[in-house]
Amino acid sequence: MAQPTILDRLLKLDTNTVSDALDFLQLKGATYGLQPLWDCQKIVGRASTVKLGIKKDDVPTAHLITPVVDAITTSDRILVISGGTEGISCWGDILANASKMKGIRGTIIDGMSRDIDGSRDIGYPVYGRGVTMISARNRIVQLDSGSPLQVQDVTINQDDYVIADRCGTVFIPAAHIEEVVELGERIDRRQTLMVEDVRDGKAVSEVMHDKKFEAIQSARSVALTPGPSHRNHQKQSSEDQELSALFANSDTPGVSDALDKLGIPGQAFNIMPLTDSKKVTVGPAFTVRYVPASEPPGSVGDFIDDVAIGDVVVIDNGGRTDCTVWGDIMTQYAGLRGIAGTVIDGVCRDVNRAIEDKYPMFSSGRWMRTGKDRVQVGGVNEPIGIGNVRVQPRDIVVADANGVVIVPRDRAQEVAEVVRKIEESEEYIRAFINGGASLTEARVKVGYHTLQRKE
What we know:
Blueprint: H1 6-11, H2 15-24, E1 30-31, E2 35-36, E3 43-54, H3 66-71, E4 77-82, H4 93-101, E5 106-109, E6 112-113, H5 116-121, E7 126-128, E8 130-131, E9 140-145, E10 149-151, E11 154-156, E12 161-165, E13 168-172, H6 177-199, H7 204-207, H8 214-217, H9 238-245, H10 252-262, E14 267-268, E15 272-273, E16 281-292, E17 312-324, H11 328-336, E18 341-348, H12 351-357, E19 361-366, E20 375-380, E21 384-386, E22 389-391, E23 396-400, E24 403-407, H13 412-434, H14 439-446
Parallel strand pairs: 3-4, 4-5, 5-7, 6-8, 16-17, 17-18, 18-19
Antiparallel strand pairs: 1-13, 2-7, 3-9, 3-12, 10-11, 12-13, 14-24, 15-19, 16-20, 16-23, 21-22, 23-24
Keywords: Magnesium, Metal-binding
Pfam families: RraA-like
InterPro entries: RraA/RraA-like (IPR005493), RraA/RraA-like_sf (IPR036704)
């Protein structure tokens, strides 16, 4: 039986694990913001580098990137493109079709793509910063290929290794691929044991106590001993349950309108769900504040054993996008303990677990680099800031596909009553429309334009 190749082994890992391995080896490779531009599969391969730049003259040029595509003769290639400009495409469906025909595994763009439906229709993976409709024609030119690229603080050389998935994109120096993959495999085995310990009832504070993953540094993995039941004995108060129930049948647009009418700032800016779930998550806030790590580093996740059933964990990481504060073990444990969901002013990782488990996760982004030794818990159940909104412990959180709103606990009854009136008015509008009224007539009858106006 043939031995698995290095690419076969890399394919079995994910960007989170590879990023951790690079951290241990003090190598740069994790980049932020280069994410799938359609719901494409994970890709691994070797970099064929392309450098672009702004066109500064009127001299006709060959279509960018096409010479690189034509020159590829092996099946292990991923195109890595740098020099993109905000709002201007440097990739489209014709290039995607040509690349697919050449057996290229995918494209990573430090820039924008257009015609993304064309790439999706043929199953060609494209990762980048976003999509646009503006052509690169007469705007961007190819400057070089096969030469080193700079993406953020990472240097990518021709033939370096690439892995990209839902959490983002990581580049691995070719000279270090064996040690990165070997260490990644050890990390993966260790984390699998940690997840098993959580499922067996071990407290997450014990499972995740090993600072800098000392156990991973050794060649053998050490399983933790079985622990007590993971049953959550932390319970909400009756008042918590009553206030949460006030919003059980509401959604964030309705609550947002009520907050506007009452002059209460509560809409958490730029905090969005991982998926467009139809579920509305409601619960009192268990607040957590993260700070930069001390020396030696402090705890990153022990607080979760104190979170009650039905609570929403609300984490203030200062909007940081360079390291995460939540991963799959936390997701697994939170789900087992009946925690309602998690809101992060910052980024999360291991998103496949949350998506597959349908665990409600709201954040300002996703990335794969760990927060271990970069941040630590600075305080719990104290006032924090989330998306420019002040959150007090036990405030009521309402979150859905539209985002997250925070209802001050001492005004929850008042807000809920306004929500009820707004929702009733909107139901009247729907009824009037069904009865044959025009939208203008229906809105006038219920005073639609004043529903959310501040009193």
